[in-house]
Amino acid sequence: MNKSANLQNSLMLAPLIGATDSLVTALGVWLMFIVVISAFGASMAAVRSRLIPASRLFAGVLLAATLTGCAELAAQVWSLQWHQHSGFYAALIALQCVVLEHTGFFQSAWRERLRLCVLFGALMVGLGLLRELLGDAGLRLATLAPGGFILLGLLIAAWQAWPRPTPSH
Hints:
flat, mainly alpha
């Protein structure tokens, strides 16, 4: 795996752990992620050919920050309580946009982009639901960030231990 893919995946870890303490927060951040990533991809596709390579990073940062700021303002108008609860994790979407642009994510096939967004959303919603259920059952640690790391580690371990059919040659 290359360093760009590791950076891309590690940046998705912060909202995955921090914004999944409840199902509502996880759904909201995922919805904001989808809207901002889609708008960023469409906007950069329109201007990418008109930019020189040296200015693409600056244009990407400016565009990502603008789109994320607009999405945060819309979220604040829509539900101030959710906006306060999501904290700065929604703002990390701008950084994720820039990293995805740098790694060539928006030039890949649309099925790969859709696959990443759906997998990220499924993991966010699943982890948010699981953490909320465990927190309601009395396990307070599940709603805190260390509990999110522990739960994610257990989910990854279960995924690795799950038996898969071996391909026959």
